[in-house]
Design brief:
Number of strands: 14
Radius of gyration: 23 Å
Strand content: 15-25%
Distance between the termini: 55 Å
Oligomer: single chain
Order of helices and strands: HEHEHEHEEHEHEHEHEHEHEEEE
Largest sheet: 6 strands, parallel
């Protein structure tokens, strides 16, 4: 009888422990605010963050800012009023988003940035960011090799208010500009948008019909640029370089349509942000201000080691 009583007590203690553990997170909420869900890469980032937060025991809701800082501001106000406990954040604008993060901080809600940086050293609790500059240096090096250090090219920039746009452009040019026989004939923004890149590239091709390559600040724009080349019958003569590691570009590299991309790791960034939020909610306060996540060059030579958004 004593044996069964002892076992029963052990079982009850285990149940109570599990209940207490669940209660610490089951009534807690984490908001995931992303710049846009009109890009599969950001959909993957948001859904990965949501899944990890849910695995950790939280209610996790996704908010789409649609690349609009005003809408992002509305999201933050609603999140604060609704009493969320943490925000996993992918900003619309490096400068414009700072005020939103500061509102959350004032309300006592920690913000963990994913992929996109904000221009503040103390607004966010931590920023987990791709090393876009170093990744673009690798692309620039491969770019010069593929073009044999000569030729004409176009650069399609992302959103001008996003630090990733300029980190990638500067990293790329830190290499390419060393070769005077590589000449950029056009540089234009397409806001990281595939359809805009298609339109921009169609216009550029009318003015510069004999280019040798295109460097795009993300893979969505790379696919839009490639589509423009196909429409003009020039896809076999122009090399396309992207940045992200999105599914359609990984497939296109394997099919020898796109030349290379920079593989970011959104799973690492999203899961790290969710884990940090969990640790904050449970009492931790010491977090690194910035965590760089390496970007890897993906080409036809090593494509077998990669899948969309990461390694096999």
């Amino acid at each position: 009888m004593k044996k069964y009583t002892f076992l029963f007590l052990l079982m009850m203690m285990a149940v109570l422990a599990c209940k207490q553990k669940t209660n610490t997170t089951s009534n807690k909420k984490i908001a995931i605010v992303v710049s846009t869900l009109n890009n599969p890469w950001f959909v993957f980032l948001a859904e990965t963050a949501q899944k990890k937060a849910q695995q950790l025991g939280y209610q996790a809701d996704i908010f789409d800012s649609q690349n609009n800082t005003a809408l992002e501001s509305d999201h933050f106000e609603n999140i604060i009023v609704a009493g969320f406990d943490a925000i996993l954040f992918n900003s619309t604008d490096a400068n414009g988003s700072v005020a939103n993060v500061l509102k959350a901080k004032t309300a006592g809600i920690p913000v963990f940035c994913m992929d996109r940086e904000i221009n503040s050293v103390d607004a966010a609790t931590s920023q987990i960011l791709s090393d876009s500059y170093a990744g673009a240096v690798s692309i620039g090096t491969y770019f010069t090799q593929q073009l044999h250090k000569k030729g004409t090219y176009v650069e399609i920039l992302g959103i001008v208010g996003d630090n990733n746009t300029w980190a990638r452009s500067k990293g790329f040019h830190s290499v390419v500009d060393q070769y005077p026989n590589l000449k950029m004939v056009a540089q234009q923004s397409a806001d990281f948008d595939r359809n805009k890149a298609l339109e921009v590239m169609e216009s550029i091709l009318q003015a510069h019909p004999t280019i040798d390559a295109i460097f795009c600040g993300n893979d969505g724009m790379a696919m839009g640029a490639y589509q423009a080349l196909v429409s003009a019958g020039k896809e076999k003569n122009v090399k396309v370089f992207g940045f992200d590691g999105a599914e359609d570009v990984i497939t296109s590299i394997g099919e020898k349509k796109v030349t290379a991309t920079g593989m970011q790791f959104p799973k690492v960034m999203a899961e790290t942000a969710a884990i940090f939020a969990d640790e904050y909610i449970k009492g931790k306060r010491d977090f690194p201000q910035k965590i760089p996540v390496a970007v890897e060059l993906v080409t036809e030579k090593n494509i077998d080691h990669y899948i969309a958004y990461g390694k096999k």
